[in-house]
User: Fold NADPH--hemoprotein reductase from Sphingobacterium athyrii.
Amino acid sequence: MLVSVWRYAHLALALVSSVFLLLLSVTGVILAIDAVNEKMPPYRIENIGSLDLSQTITGLRKVYPEIIEISVDHNQFVSIDAIDAEGNTVKGYIDPQTGKYLGAQKNKTQFVQWTTALHRSLFLKVTGRIIIGIASFLLFLITISGLVLIIKRQQGVRHFFAKINRDFFAQYFHVVSGRLFLIPILILALTGTYLFMVRIELLKKTNQTVEYPVKENETEELAIADFSIFKKTKLNDVVKVEFPFMEGDPDEYYVLKLKDRELTVNQLNGAVHKEVKYPFTALAEQFSLDLHTGKTNMIWAIILGLASLNIVFFIYTGFVITFKRTRTKIKNKYKAADAEIVILVGTENGSTLFFANQIHKQLLADGKKSLLLGMNHYQYFPKAKHLLLFTSTYGLGTAPSNATQFEKKLLAYPQQQSINFSVLGFGSKAYPDFCAYAYAIDKLLSQQVWASRLIDLHTVNDKSVDELISWVHHWSEQSNIALASAPAIYSSKVVGLKKFKVIARSTVSESNSTFTLLLKPLGKMKVQSGDLLAIYPAQDQRERFYSIGCKDGMVQLVVKLFPDGFGSGFLYQLKADQVLEARVMANPSFHFPKTAPAVALIANGTGIAPFLGMIAENQHKIPVKLYAGFRKNNEITAQYLEFTDVQKKLGQLNDVQLAFSREQQGQYVMDLIRQDGKYFIELLEQQGCILLCGSLRMQQDVEATLNEILLVSTGKSINIYKENGQVLTDCY
Ligand SMILES: Cc1cc2nc3c(=O)[nH]c(=O)nc-3n(C[C@H](O)[C@H](O)[C@H](O)COP(=O)(O)O)c2cc1C
Assistant:
C-alpha cells in the first residue's frame, strides 16, 4: 500500500513535469558539452593559486603600461584589457606571470546562447523562469520519491547498494541508473530550484557596505608591490580588478571584485577605502550556479551532462514501465455475483495480469462466465465453480502491491459453495523465496472448507511461457475447459498482422456444418501445420484461433459454423480473392515430429485440420496412421477420404480409420484405438509419437484408453510417454 502511494506520487510528478524535464535535460546536455568544451583551450596557468595580486599587477605593469582591467573567469583563465608598450590595445587571455598574450576571448555561439535562454526561461521571461523553477522543484520531489522506492525495493537502506535483479530492461536500467545518478540529479534539482528562487527575488539580497576612515599613517605613498591588500589577495580569489581611470588622482580607486565582496582601494597607498560585503544568498547563488552548470570543473561538468542525459532515458524507461504496468485493459462482462470462473491476479508490474487476461479473454470468447480481478478485490462469488489465482511474489517472499489485503479478505469472506481452486505462482529463481507468496496462498486456500484443489500449484520462473503452458494443459485437462496452448498467445510480443488471400471455401449443408477455407499468404511468412491462425472478425481486440494445416504453401482451416458464431460466421462470409488480415501464432510444441520413427495422428471434428497439412507435407514418408472421429459420414468426411486416398498412394500416409458416432453402429475414436491397441503399444515403445487434436473430452477419453492398454501390457502409464515428449496435444 505504502509502495503504491510513493509509486503514484513518483509517476504523477513525472507526468506533470516530463515535457519540461525533457527540455531541460536535453538543453542541459548541450550546455554541459559547452562547459567541457570551454575548458579545452590551454589558457589555464598551473600555479594560479600561489600568485598574489601585488606580484601579478607589478609584473603586468612592465608589459602593459596602461591597464584598464584584469579578470579571472570561472575556468581560472586570466584576461586583460590593456595597452601594451607599443600602444596597441590588447584584449584577451594572458599568462599572468609573464603577461604573454595567449588568445582572444570568444563569445558564446548563437546556438549556445539560444540554448541557455531556453534552459533558463523558455524565452518566456519571468513566466518561463517560474515554470522552470517549478519543474526543478518537481525533479527534486521525483528524486526523493524515487529514492524511497529504491529503498523499499531493496528491502531497506542497508541493501541500497546490493545487487539489483533484472526483471526487464527498462526497469533494471531505471533502478540501476537511478541509484548511480541520484546525487548529481538531486544537486541539479536543488541548485536549479535555489537559482530560481534567488532570480525571481524570493530570497532577499542586500549588500553590507562599510566605509573605512582614512588613517594617519596612510598618507604616505607606497609601491603597488607593497599594498598589503594586494599581497594578501590570491589571484584565484579575484573576479576582477578595475584600474583607476586617472593615475595619481587620489579620488580614483582600484575596484577589487572578489568572490565574496568588493573593495575600493586607494591607488596611492593601497588602503581599503570601502568594502561591500555580499550577502550569504549571493554567495550561495554563485555556489549553486557553479554546481548547477559544472563550469568550474570539467569532471563535474561531464557528470552533470551524463546525469542530464540520464534524465532523458529515465523519462523513457519510466514510461515503458508504466505502459507495461497498465497496458493490460481488463474487460469484465460478468459481475462477482454471476461469475462462474473467477481469476484473481496478484501483480506489481503487470506481467502476471497480462497472462491472466489472455486466459480470461479466451474463456469469455468461449462463452464462459469469467471474471478477472485484482486479489485485493476478493469477495463473495456465489456462482463460482473455479477460482484461479495467478500471483507474483515480491520483497522477501511477500505479496505484490495489489494483493496485500487478500489474506485478510479470504478469511473475512468464506464462500458458501464448494469451489475448485488452482494457484499459479509467477516468480524468479534469482530470489531465494521463489514464488513464496503463491505457496503461502496455496496453503491458505487448501485450509478453507469450501476450497477443493483442482490441480497442484504450478510455478512460472521468469515469465516462462512454456511453464505457463504446462499449467494450461493440466488445468484444461482437469477442468474440461478448453484453453489454447500456442505460446504466441501468451507472448507479449505482438507479431504484426499478415495478409492472406482467400483461395477457396467449401460450403455447409443441412447434414454438414463444417467447411474448409484455403488461404494464400501474401508475402513471405513462417508457418507450419499445427500453428494457430488468430483472426480479428470485428477488427478490435477480440481474437479467435484456428488450427492451421499447410498445403502447397497455403494455409487450410477446418471450421465448424456455429449459428451466430463470431469467428466462424466471419470466416464463412469470406469470398474468393478477398483479403484477410490475421496473425500466425507459432505452436512449436505441436509441430510434426520429423525425427520420430512412426506417428499416429488422432483427431475429432475440426481437430483434423493440422493433420491434413502434416500428411500433405510428409515428404520423408514417415509411417503415419490417422484416426479421426466425427458425428456423421457426410460430404466433408468424404472429402477427407478422397484426400487420404491420394496421400496413401503417394506413400505419405499408411492407414486411415474414421469413426462416426451418430451413424448406425455408433463408434468413437477410442474404439478405433482399442482395436489397434497392439499398434499403439509398439509405437510408443519404439519411440514413436502420438499427436492429439480436437476436443478436450476426446483427449481425456483417448488418454484414459491408452493408459488402460499400456498399464496392462507394459505396466507404464501414459504420463511416462507424455513426459518423454511422445504424446503431443492441442485440444480445446
Ligand atoms: C523487487 C523485486 C522483488 C522480487 N522478489 C521476488 C521473490 O521474493 N520471489 C520470487 O519468486 N520472485 C520475486 N520477484 C520476481 C517477480 O515476482 C517476477 O518477475 C514476476 O514475474 C513479476 O510479475 P508482475 O510483473 O506481475 O509483478 C521479484 C521481482 C522484483 C522486481
